[in-house]
Amino acid sequence: MRKWSNIRFQTKLFVVFILLSSIPVLLIGTMAYRKSSMMLQARNEQDLNVILAQLNTSIERQVRDFDRFTMIPYYLPDIFSFLNKPYLAKEQWGSAEIQAQRTMARLMGAYPSINSSIKGLMIYGMNGTVNGYRISGNTVINPKEKVADEDWYQQALAERGGFVITGVREINQFKDGSFPALIGSRLLMDENYQPLAVMAIFISPDFIPKLAETLELPTVKVTVLDQNRNMIYASDPALAARQLSIGTGEQRGSWEVSPSAGQGQEGYSGVFLESVYLKWKVYLGVNREQLLAGNRSISYFTFLVAVGAVICSAAVSWLLARRLSRPINRLIRSMRQVEQGNFKAPVPVGEDNEMRRLESSYHRMVNRLDKLVQSIEEKERQKRNAELYALRARIQPHFLYNTLNSIRMLAILQQSSHIAKLLQSLAKLLQANMKLDSELVTLDEEIRLLQDYAALMDLRYTSVFTVDWNIPHECLHVTIPPMLLQPLLENAIFHGARGLDRTLHISVVAKPDEESGTLCIEITDDGAGFAGKEILLWEENAHEDNKEGRVGEEGAAHTSTDHNGLRNVHERILLRFGEPYGLSLQRTDSLTKAIVNIPLKSAASETRGNRDVESVGR
């Protein structure tokens, strides 16, 4: 059994050593892979931003060429004179109208750089004329196509001579079918700034992929959206459809789309930029898998290093596990003997190393435990002897209590009522003192005891003080430690009466607080009492003893009931009930208050609860 236990222990150490050697390598490799991936993506985003700015500038430059192309009619007076004449049907054209039509055809070749991108042009005169020309195909104008309600036409009128360009539209101005094109339009105005005609050119969107090809980046995906987020060009239409909701309301930024395994879509990331001139948005992006393909070599290398580290550490770990397991097993066997009460530790053997020092410490600890156990046994014997002595000592107060009752009966028989009353009060105080070690009493019993004490003091010092009792009936069943209030009343009598030439007035008041569950008992006197400085000193020093003696004949005799008594009351409450209960002192005007706060618990609930034995003092 022990052999299998040793093997399991060695196996556990072996596994721990392997993990400690391989996990750091894997963590470092993973962190390096992530860091390099982040740096690669950041660098790729910077490069794409530079390329995007170049592509956007090229697109704007090309569109500006189309913009300038629409200004050519201002330099051809034949067209303007033609447009100023009243509308004539084509059958009524003369040489002037035919010459103007030929001039419009020559417009198509005016800009060789953009001639291949313009598929045709139309001029809609304010006088009702409609003229057009087309590079290829049927040049016959479709008379059914009305443009007056088209948004681009209305926008050209609103711009009052400004250039307007739309996204890709289906052009139906000619009879042999429609074709896709961008529409660039401008309102032509005469020398009096009156509308003359709207010129529209039909631009093939093929100039955008031609500009993209000049970048010589076949892996970069390009998407161009117009101001209404309609697609003008997309090198990857599926990716463009996923970009329609990216960058809305933003002029520039970065974007990323996650791969979708169910739909076979790959992940892409890139940047976008909105043209200030055209309000178009251009998106550039690359495939994330292709971007990070070279970076995977780091993860492969990390895996190979981790495998090599595991193989190398396996041999080392097995040797270390065997070396460490022997002294540890020796300690385990010794611990089992200590559990059975045999405090005999093995003597450390071997070279001076950590395990040898551990065994030495364990040997000293076991020897110390052996001595402590012997010491505890001796103290237990002494404790039993002390308990027997305490049981014998408890007989003495009972004997004194019974003797006082006997003397009281003799005083009654000899008709000495004053002495009998004095002995009765003293006997009750002695009986209450006998309960200090174990019981709680009701507030009713404590008040009766306090009244007996007040009667005893009144018999001793005639007409020195009076006591007013204000105890609500619902508070009488609240439990309280016995003899808790007697030191407070005693302090009120001896402190308050010193130096007075009048009767001392003392009040005992109980105030229940149902909301907080607290009973507040106040013992107030109007005598000399403690000074405010003495009260502050008592609170700041945790009720330390006040070294000043009492004034008068009783001062020296009652020093122990001075601040020591108050401290005992406070500590008894804390030990019994804990925070925030306790004793506090207040001095207001000519009154001194001792305030006791205890839980508002009845005798019945205390009986059901845990009635631990309280400690009197520390």
UniProtKB/TrEMBL annotation:
Q: Name one GO molecular function term.
A: protein histidine kinase activity
Its main localization is membrane
Xref: InterPro entries: Bact_2-comp_sensor_kinase (IPR050640), HAMP_dom (IPR003660), HATPase_C_sf (IPR036890), Sig_transdc_His_kin_internal (IPR010559)
Question: If you read the UniProt record, what top EC class would you report for this enzyme, in one word?
Answer: transferase
What EC numbers are recorded for this enzyme?
2.7.13.3
Q: Does the keyword Zinc apply?
A: no
PROSITE patterns reported in the protein's UniProt record: HAMP (PS50885)
Membrane topology per the record? Multi-pass membrane protein
Entry superkingdom: Bacteria
The record's subcellular locations are:
Cell membrane
The entry's protein name is: Sensor histidine kinase
